[in-house]
Amino acid sequence: MRAFPRHPCPVGSPRSSACRVADHVPLEPWQVRERRFTRCGRRGVDSVEVAAFLDQVADELAEVYAALDSSRREIERIREVLRAWQSQRARADRAARR
């Protein structure tokens, strides 16, 4: 079982809340799929329900990460086109001034 600490900095340290934010690492789909819960006596959890829920969450995270990756690629493509246009425009402006 993998442990994913909720609070990476010692509680009560002067920078504990800042550390939690700065050290936060987003969950990956594999982390959700591999997460296991401990039994709580008579009030234990239904492992089938938990597994189904975790699979659903992991699938949704995978979709979100795929969409984010696609958006980042599109942003980079647009930046490259904009840089090329700006360079072309700057050359044309310099040529017009001569």
Series of H and E elements = HHH
Distance between the termini: 71 Å
> Main β-sheet: number of strands, strand sense, barrel status?
none
Number of β-strand runs:
0
Radius of gyration from the alpha-carbon trace, in angstroms = 24 Å
Account of the protein in words:
The protein is mostly helical and 98 residues long. It is built from three helices and no strands. The longest helix is centred in the C-terminal third of the chain and has 51 residues, at 47-97. The protein starts with 15 loop residues before the first helix and ends with a helix. Mean pLDDT is 78; it is low at 1-19.
Please tag this protein with its features.
single chain; 98 residues; mainly alpha; 65% helix; disordered N terminus
Topology, pairings included?
Elements: H1 16-22, H2 29-34, H3 47-97
Briefly characterize the structure.
With 98 residues, this protein is mainly alpha-helical.
